[in-house]
Amino acid sequence: MTNEDAPKKSTRIPVKTIAIEPAKSGVAEYKPRDQIYVRKVEGVFQRLRRKMNFVFLGLFAILPWLQYNGNQALLFDIGEQRFTIWGLTLWPQDLTLLAFLFIVAAYLLFFVTTFLGRVWCGYMCPQTVWTFIFIWFEEKIEGSANQRKKLDGRKMDFDKFWRKALKHFCWLFFSLLTALTFVGYFTPIDQLFIDFFTFSASLTAVGVVVFFAFCTYGNAGWMREVMCLHMCPYARFQSAMFDKDTLTVSYDKNRGENRGPRGRKQDPKALGLGDCIDCNLCVQVCPTGIDIRNGLQYECINCGACADACDGVMEKMKYDKGLIRYTTEHELEGKKVHFLRGKLVGYAFMMVLISAALLWTIISRMPVDLDIIRDRTALATENFDGEIENVYTLKILNKSQYDATYNLSVKGLSNVTWNGDQQVVVKAATVYTLPISLTVDPYDLKGFVNDIEFEVTLADDTSVTVSQPSKFFNKR
């Protein structure tokens, strides 16, 4: 038999048929997440976090109640298009100041993130602050993490009902106070509280307060880590600012592995074990439910809870603290750490530069502004005396917190007659509208269009002068 007569070997890949069972009905297969029962932990970082949270929450609650010159010191009145920050009043014309402020805040965030990682998330982010406040209510009403877990697994009885009802009442009431305080930054807060609790507030005000109360209740009470993991953009772009010298909460794998339980008097080296006793406390205290021993993860908010829990265990085992600590990737690899580096210096330089520009803009800012509106119905008219008349509307904006007297004048025309007030009193942080007209002998006009300039000067300080160009038209 020749090679041609031999049976050819098949090149087809054998396929094994697997029976697919139909999916079971119900929602168990699509469980979105396991509820995290955050265990309470004490330690240096948690004490620091609580103090910072207390300061942040105190400032948030107190600032809108402060008064300056008889007015609310901080008021971002969107309806009146006026932002009041103590003695500074910002108008739409001053949006460059807000732009500078946001840029400075962005570079400050970049600088802190490059140096200390996501400490903003762990110590100052409102989502984190309010979440820990809501967890505090849970601990006081329902007990520890294990007690809360057992309570949720029980069938509904009177004890479970009153605890759950009281917890949600506290959440809702705190959310309502939060919403009222937040809205109080955008409308006079004292009147808002009076109107709301006397049922005389407007439908719009009530709707906005209820909306923000519902958001606070949902975010801090129900969603919690979901906001950090899936909705916060900061968690996604933070890696662009990280480098191997960024201080983050990390697990020292060289020291901790191999993991395993042991007695306090046993020598871990003799057992072939590292310092990690695999107690899992670092996972139980984490507000986002991650295991820091798996390495750097975007879910970590750098709150230091796992470090405090681990230090407590190391102390009981009489091991050195710092198995989980704020450290850098270079330090864990045994390399030199460069705290002063190009990216960090660049962020600091830009932050200082833009802060200086912001400060200079505020210092050089004129406390008055002028806007000119010409009469569009007729560019020029001739009055009974044969003179040419142009009509204007002057809008004088007093940006200061005090009533001011201004003198008005015009340049660019000879023998001009001003018809209207040339000295006006403008109340603090208001716009004064003044209609005026200018009349000129046609023989004093050089052509059809003449350039002129209106000036507004503070009566008490002639150095405060603002001018705006305009046109004076002749009749053809």
Describe this structure as you would to a colleague.
It is a single chain. The protein is an alpha+beta fold and 476 residues long. It has two domains: 33-365, no CATH class; 368-473, Immunoglobulin-like (Sandwich). The protein is 39% helix and 19% strand. The protein contains 15 helices and 16 strands. The chain has helices spanning 44-62, 95-116, 119-123, 126-142, 145-153, 158-183, 189-197, 203-223, 225-231, 234-237, 253-256, 281-284, 305-317, 329-332, 342-363, and strands spanning 67-68, 71-72, 74-77, 82-85, 88-90, 248-251, 324-327, 368-374, 381-382, 388-398, 404-411, 417-419, 423-426, 431-440, 449-458, 461-473. Strands 8, 9, 10, 12 and 14 form a five-stranded antiparallel sheet that branches. The chain has a four-stranded antiparallel sheet with strand order 13-11-15-16, with no helix packed on it. A hairpin with a 2-residue loop joins strand 15 (449-458) and strand 16 (461-473). The chain is elongated.
